[in-house]
């Protein structure tokens, strides 16, 4: 039986979809209101994701499954959607075997980044739309984030606010993006890289999917960045667009991590702020 770590409506839906299923493992992250359960039913393994009343990740994930994942799912490089109920904030996918790259020996292997670059290029190349509101909306989000509780120093907050307010808001090209492209969302199985977790998927500039790697793994080993760019085929990080994106990511990381009490991630956010401000556009 499915144990009650989800609400009653979600539990009943899962019992209807997978009668008598057992919970193999709880993969929930714990910092956000998303429950992730590995289930077994009739010898087949599945993953169920359930959102709490404040959740907005399940809708993004469901859109990704329905609109953008075919280039990966058709090759077994992302989990297949089995069932979903958007109103109940619940979805069910096939279990995708593999070892998480983050924290494993694979995290330092250039071939993993080569494959990850190839996968990301396939994802980005599906669709491109011109948008004239994205930059303005992101500017508003960054200013709003600076107005929330955080531990960014007051004088630094003032400097950030002034820079954000100075940003132009040109039209830009949006593509399907993963939104959290990094080793904690990659699996390796028999040497093949695959992708999980689409709760931040959305239409954004392609360079946004480079943000996490640029402040983490790319800094530890230049060979990883070279392999990734070789797999991707180009580098979309135009300096004039990259600097605002770096600051948006830095502000968002520091503020969000403070709100959920993730001190390690918050420290990364403060480091990202310092690094982004230290680097000027040539």
TrEMBL record:
A Pfam family hit: APH
InterPro entries listed in its UniProt record: Aminoglycoside_PTrfase, Kinase-like_dom_sf
Sequence ranges assigned to domain Aminoglycoside phosphotransferase in this UniProt record: 53-243
Keyword Signal: no
Swiss-Prot/TrEMBL keywords: Transferase
Gene Ontology molecular-function annotations: transferase activity
The name this protein goes by in its record: Phosphotransferase family enzyme
Record organism: Kribbella steppae
Species classification: Bacteria, Bacillati, Actinomycetota, Actinomycetes, Propionibacteriales
């Amino acid at each position: 039986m499915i144990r009650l770590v989800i609400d009653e409506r979600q539990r009943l839906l899962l019992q209807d979809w997978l009668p008598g299923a057992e919970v193999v493992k709880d993969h929930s992250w714990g910092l956000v209101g998303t429950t992730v359960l590995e289930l077994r039913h009739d010898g087949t393994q599945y993953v169920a994701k359930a959102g709490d009343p404040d959740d907005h990740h399940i809708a993004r994930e469901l859109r990704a499954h329905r609109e953008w994942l075919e280039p990966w799912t058709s090759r077994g490089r992302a989990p297949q959607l089995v069932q979903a109920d958007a109103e109940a904030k619940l979805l069910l996918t096939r279990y995708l075997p593999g070892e998480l790259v983050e924290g494993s020996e694979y995290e330092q292997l250039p071939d993993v980044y080569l494959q990850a670059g190839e996968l990301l290029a396939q994802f980005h190349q599906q669709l491109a739309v011109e948008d004239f509101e994205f930059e303005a909306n992101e500017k508003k989000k960054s200013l709003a984030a600076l107005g929330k509780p955080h531990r960014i120093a007051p004088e630094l907050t003032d400097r950030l606010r002034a820079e954000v307010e100075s940003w132009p808001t040109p039209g830009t090209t949006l593509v399907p993006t993963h939104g959290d492209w990094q080793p904690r969302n990659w699996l390796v199985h028999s040497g093949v890289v695959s992708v999980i977790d689409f709760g931040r998927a959305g239409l954004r500039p392609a360079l946004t999917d480079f943000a996490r790697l640029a402040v983490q793994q790319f800094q530890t080993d230049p060979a990883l960045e070279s392999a990734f760019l070789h797999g991707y085929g180009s580098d979309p990080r135009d300096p004039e667009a990259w600097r605002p994106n770096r600051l948006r990511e830095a502000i968002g990381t520091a503020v969000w991590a403070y709100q959920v009490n993730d001190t390690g991630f918050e420290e990364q956010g403060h480091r990202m702020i310092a690094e982004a401000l230290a680097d000027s556009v040539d």
